[in-house]
Design brief:
single chain; alpha/beta; Spore Coat Polysaccharide Biosynthesis Protein SpsA, Chain A; seven-stranded mixed beta sheet; two-stranded antiparallel ribbon; globular
Length: 249
């Protein structure tokens, strides 16, 4: 039975599976003295504790024994063991969401209005970032709000290199000159992987039919500062994130 709460019902899905290609077992790593996943759990719980206008809960989907043991030890949030069929390189986070959300809704007697994906590899994202993205979602009456940050370099400066070492511009431009000052080029933004806010029916139904394409007429960007946008993908990201966390303390 659906609860009769007038507050928007929000579920935070924190996906963490074993294995990774570039940085081995990155979801199990320790960053600045704490498990990497702690930072995302803490951000979700801080949002819950400080935003009573929403009814929110967080759920970890994982197949990592160390994370399960750690989260049971601290007593939060809810943990859902990820099925083996959804713990492969070919299973997407959206597959996990579509499998998990109906189970939680049936178990807890609720139908969610909003589904938020928080990747544990974005440890610098905090509760205020989450709040800003969710506020944007409701203000825009969006299907989706995706966090972004300014791109480090203009796309006009990007090349592929062929087998002979030749340079091929990513963008075909009329001029062969690539000396345009950065400040003269348009501001560009990139996905930072930190926050994905979805209308429930959009991610559960519309995106399923559209090959998980998040873009729609009602998909909007939420811009985050670069120092909150580190996405852990290699050992240098870990070092950078650690340095930024040390600056905060």
């Amino acid at each position: 039975m659906k609860t009769n709460s007038v507050k928007p019902q929000i579920v935070f899905i924190i996906p963490a599976r074993k294995g990774s290609k570039r940085l081995k077992n990155k979801n199990s790593l320790t960053l600045a003295g704490r498990p990497l996943i702690w930072y995302t759990v803490e951000a979700a719980m801080a949002f819950k504790d400080n935003n009573p206008e929403y009814e929110s809960r967080a759920v970890i989907s994982t197949d990592i024994p160390d994370i399960i043991k750690y989260l049971y030890g601290i007593g939060r949030p809810a943990i859902e063991k990820r099925p083996e069929r959804l713990a492969t390189d070919t299973a997407s986070t959206y597959d996990v969401v579509r499998d998990l959300v109906p189970k939680i809704e049936i178990r807890d007697g609720v139908v969610f209005d909003v589904i938020v994906i928080l990747q544990p590899t974005s440890p610098l994202r905090d509760a205020l970032d989450i709040r800003g993205a969710i506020k944007c979602f409701f203000r825009k009456k969006a299907n989706a709000v995706i966090s972004m940050c300014r791109a480090e370099v203009p796309v006009q400066w990007l090349f592929s290199i062929d087998g002979k070492g030749g340079m091929n511009p990513f963008m075909r431009m009329k001029s062969k000159r690539f000396s345009t000052p950065k400040q003269s080029l348009p501001e560009l933004y990139r996905l930072n992987g930190a926050i994905y806010v979805f209308k429930r029916d959009f991610v559960m139904d519309a995106m399923r039919k559209n090959k998980n394409n998040v873009l729609s007429a009602k998909t909007y960007a939420y811009v985050m500062p670069e120092n909150h946008s580190v996405d852990i993908d290699d050992k240098y990201d870990m070092l950078y994130a650690s340095a930024l966390l040390n600056q905060r303390s």
